[in-house]
Specification:
Elements lengths: L9 H11 L8 E4 L2 E8 L9 H9 L11 E4 L3 H13 L3 E6 L4 H9 L3 E5 L1 H10 L8 E2 L6 H17 L3 E7 L4 H13 L4 E7 L4 H8 L25 H7 L2 E5 L1 H15 L5 H11 L7 E6 L6 H8 L6
Parallel strand pairs: 2-10, 3-4, 3-6, 4-5, 7-8, 7-10, 8-9
Antiparallel strand pairs: 1-2
Helix pairs in contact: 1-6, 2-3, 2-6, 3-4, 6-7, 10-11, 10-12
Cofactor: pyridoxal 5'-phosphate
GO biological process, one term: isoleucine biosynthetic process
Organism: Mytilus galloprovincialis
């Protein structure tokens, strides 16, 4: 089983950034309304509405051509699948995707429109594929959405863009799903300034990192599916734990109501459509538990089902 521990360097992230020039536009950093020290990194503005395009683009370019004959495959709740399918379509490759049964229709439909071939399974089966990096019978070279060094390096370009734009940034809050996003960002940011604090953000129904940090080792968490589908799992992936533990300051846990309120705030005040995972970082920042100074919140994506979005705008937690 491949590991990212110790393998991703600043030079890998810089190389990914150089490769992406002319292929992906850097996303803007904007100020949160009435909060002069909170900034929003707008990853929801990518063509697929998510940061996942970065890691997918960087990973697929590194796969030897002979390994692409049967196409590519992955296990994803939706956003990474979109990133992979978007690139596969441009390269005329087959893209097979394993998704959990609770994956939102918005994301699944988007993958299919990009030519991705969907297989739906129960969450436990899907999580097993995440842990084993494979799914029996699925054709193509497996590209892991988290534990691929090239995915982590691609994600890290976000960190470079943040410090380029705000050199004196003090805190960065990142939604935590598997650790590939936060590790890439932290490697880049801490190379600029080792004193930058990088916080994970988790939702109360899926916070294995917080539980693991408190226990001092990876532990399982009783995961519950919710409208915040873009982050959280049953446990911290073992191959990610050493890197996460060394880079992450802490995990801030937010409630489902706080996430729904943050979605409403972003829509009404900044005219931003964010999905649960993206808005969760703003909910975390609003708790006031991070250190002083400027804080960047990663708005990781904007792919939320319209009915759930409406419920949030009405002040309700989507069912």
């Amino acid at each position: 089983m491949p590991s990212v521990v110790g393998s991703v360097q600043l030079s890998d992230i810089q190389e990914a950034k150089e490769y992406m020039k002319g292929k992906l536009q850097p996303t803007p950093l904007v100020q949160l309304w009435e909060h002069k020290n909170i900034f929003l990194k707008m990853e929801n503005l990518h063509p697929i509405g998510s940061f996942k395009l970065r890691g997918a683009l960087n990973a697929i370019r590194k796969i030897p051509i002979e390994k692409l004959e049967l196409g590519i495959c992955t296990a994803s709740a939706g956003n990474f699948a979109q990133g992979l399918a978007w690139n596969a379509k441009n390269m005329d490759l087959t893209c097979n995707v394993l998704v959990p049964s609770h994956a939102p229709l918005t994301k699944v439909s988007a993958v299919e429109k990009l030519g991705g071939i969907i297989t739906k399974v129960q969450f436990d089966k899907w999580w097993e594929a995440i842990e084993t990096h494979s799914y029996e019978g699925m054709q193509g070279t497996f590209v892991h959405p988290v534990c691929e060094p090239d995915v982590v390096a691609g994600n890290g370009t976000i960190g470079l863009e943040i410090v380029d734009c705000i050199p004196d940034i003090s805190n960065i809050i990142v939604p935590y799903g598997g650790g590939g996003l936060i590790c890439g960002i932290a490697i880049a940011a801490k190379a600029h300034n080792p004193n930058i604090k990088v916080y994970a953000c988790e939702v109360e129904t899926a916070c294995p990192l917080k539980a693991s940090l408190q226990a001092g080792e990876p532990v399982e968490f009783p995961y519950q599916a919710s409208f915040v589908d873009g982050m959280g799992g049953k446990s911290v992936l073992p191959e990610m734990w050493p890197l996460v533990k060394s880079l992450v300051t802490d995990s801030i846990v937010v409630s489902l109501q706080e996430v729904a309120d943050a979605i409403k705030l972003l829509s009404e005040r900044n005219h931003i459509r964010a999905e649960g995972a993206g808005a969760a970082t703003v909910a975390a920042a609003m708790k006031g538990v991070v250190g002083e100074g400027k804080t960047a919140c990663i708005i990781s994506g904007g792919n939320i089902d319209t009915d759930k979005y409406i419920q949030c705008l009405q002040g309700r937690v989507p069912s």
